[in-house]
Amino acid sequence: MNSALTENHRLLALRDQHVPRGIATAHPLVAARAQGAELWDVDGKRYLDFVGGIGVLNVGHNHPRVVEAVRRQVGEISHASFQVVAYENYIQVAARLNALVGGGEHYKAVLFTSGAEAVENAVKIARGYTNRTAVISFRGGFHGRTLLGVTLTGMSQPYKQNFGPFPAEIYHAPYPDAYRGISSEYALAELDTLFATDVAPDRVAAIIIEPVQGDGGFLAAPKAFLQALRARCTEHGIVLILDEIQAGFGRTGSMFGFQHAGIQPDLVTVAKSLAGGMPLSGVVGRAAIMDAPTPGGLGGTYGGNAVACAAALAVLDLFEEQDLLGQAKALAMQLQDGLRALQRRYPRIGDVRGLGFMQAIEMVAGDDSQSPDAGLAQRVIDHARTAGLLVIKCGVHRNVVRFLAPLVTTPAQLDEALGMLDTALAAACVNQ
Ligand SMILES: Cc1ncc(COP(=O)(O)O)c(C=O)c1O
Predict the structure, then answer these.
(1) 375-385, pLDDT tens digit by residue?
(2) Whose CA is nearest to atom 4 of ligand 1?
(3) What is the largest CA-CA distance in the chain?
(4) Cβ–Cβ contacts within 10 Å for residue 71, how many?
(5) N or C: which end of the chain has fewer CB within 10 A?
(6) 246 within ligand 1 shell (Cβ under 6 A)
(7) Distance from the alpha carbon of residue 144 to the mean position of ligand 1, in angstroms
(8) Cβ neighbourhood burial of 32 (10 Å; 0-12, 13-18, 19+)
(9) Cα distances (angstroms) measured from residue 357 to each of 68, 274, 318, 405, 408
(10) pLDDT, tens digit, 9 for 90 and up, residues 178-217
């Protein structure tokens, strides 16, 4: 492992030679195989993977049911393009998403490949339905890396760089952040100011919001804020889009994050853990809104790929058959308790927050300071990797360490991970 040229080193050198730096790799290691919450690199080192392909693996790596469904589907038909011929498992995924999101109401769903594509299409659908142009998103929000995605995203670097010009008619409002004193009341007042000063509400097609900001730092929108947004959207005929790409599929202890607030969105974007590692995303929404674009206006060659749909059905079966939401809630309590205990010992953890099993720690400069310390967060992440735990950062200031462990993580694995985090914090905070 410590020999001069490990397999990791060899492959990472090739990676640097052949792959541009713009696609950054958070951890300098090359994965060989994975199972459940564990991942092994090409040199045989084992890690607890609390990144899960960035929140994609709520049912864990290589769940046998997903593997089996994928194998079977590849043997039957792997790609036909739903724009050419229909196939049953696409229709089944759509029907099941409609039931999960819409409750008793008539919802429809269209499938794509990536989260950004789902976001792009949600905006197209909202504009098509309202015949309005403006879209409001939130500071600190993340909605993907396409040009519209980064424009909606409320973080400048590294996402926007010099990639403009950006699409017009996108406005940003503040997102509540209790730790930094942004209350729901203040955020709502700022939204109303935006309506008064920048864009009249009757020109707004959609408001798009994450129920818990993912890349923006694991900030959960207070229930009252989401309820007030719902009311504003209803009052002004604005389509309310909930971006559940990171928070969805049990991560927060409910199937979707918006369900904690008891609201009904008009459109919901889904991706990531929908298909257990296969690329699949979708827009799920009220039928009348979803049917606004005329035939041919939506689609994409690979959207709703048959193999990805087979994987999604296996994932949705697992949610029905196993108490994954119950497991998420139990794991969430264990993780929160563990992180709070660490916060008592390491004052440089300024905040422990999240919703359900979507938890993070915010690293700050000193005992009484809320100054973001991105360097410390990076050291925690690097020492955690050395100890055998994979985690990544988030937050507008990149000083937040986030935990996206599979919902099938065992309590023993979670304890082990907390021990590794303790080791990492001790090493990262020493002499600080
Ligand atoms: C909330 C949210 N929306 C959109 C996206 C973009 O998804 P993708 O990377 O699949 O395009 C992400 C990805 O992290 C996300 O977390």
Answers:
(1) 999 999 999 99
(2) 143
(3) 66
(4) 11
(5) N
(6) yes
(7) 5
(8) middle
(9) 27, 16, 18, 8, 11
(10) 999 999 999 999 999 999 999 999 999 999 999 999 999 9
> pLDDT, tens digit, for every residue of 59-94?
999 999 999 999 999 999 999 999 999 999 999 999
| CB 342 within 8 Å of CB 308 | no
275 C-alpha to center of ligand 1: Å? Answer: 14
| pTM score, whole prediction | 0.98
Q: Which ligand 1 atom is at minimum distance from the Cα of 279?
A: 10
**CA proximity to 361, closest of 432, 427, 430, 418:** 418
280: left (phi over 0), alpha (psi -120 to 50) or beta: beta
Ligand 1 centroid–CA 117 distance in Å is 9
What does the alpha-carbon distance between residue 91 and residue 13 come to, in Å, rounded to a whole number? 44
Q: How far apart are CA 249 and CA 58, in angstroms?
A: 7
Give the angle 192-195-201 at the CA atoms, nearest 5°.
Answer: 115
Does pLDDT of 3 surpass 70?
Answer: no
CA distances (Å), 372 to each of 180, 228, 257, 398, 421, in order? 11, 30, 27, 8, 19
Nearest to 381, CA basis, from 366, 352, 351, 403: 403
CA of 245 to the centre of ligand 1 (A): 6
Q: Does ligand 1 lie within 6 Å of residue 195's CB atom?
A: no
3-state secondary structure of 318: helix
For the chain, which domains are there?
3-62+323-429 (3.90.1150.10), 77-321 (3.40.640.10)
d(CA 392, CA 118) in angstroms, rounded, equals 24
What does residue 182 show for φ and ψ, rounded to 5 degrees? -95, 105
Q: Tell me which residue has its CA closest to atom 10 in ligand 1.
A: 115
C-alpha of residue 60 to centroid of ligand 1, in Å: 19
Q: Are 321 and 313 in contact (CB under 8 A)?
A: no
Which DSSP string do the residues of 281-307 spell out, in sequence order?
A: EEEEEEHHHHT-SPTTSS--TTTT-HH
- What pLDDT sits at residue 368? 75
Task: Kindly give the interhelix angle for 306-321 and 88-102, rounded to the nearest 10 degrees.
Answer: 40
- Is 152's C-beta closer than 6 angstroms to any atom of ligand 1? no
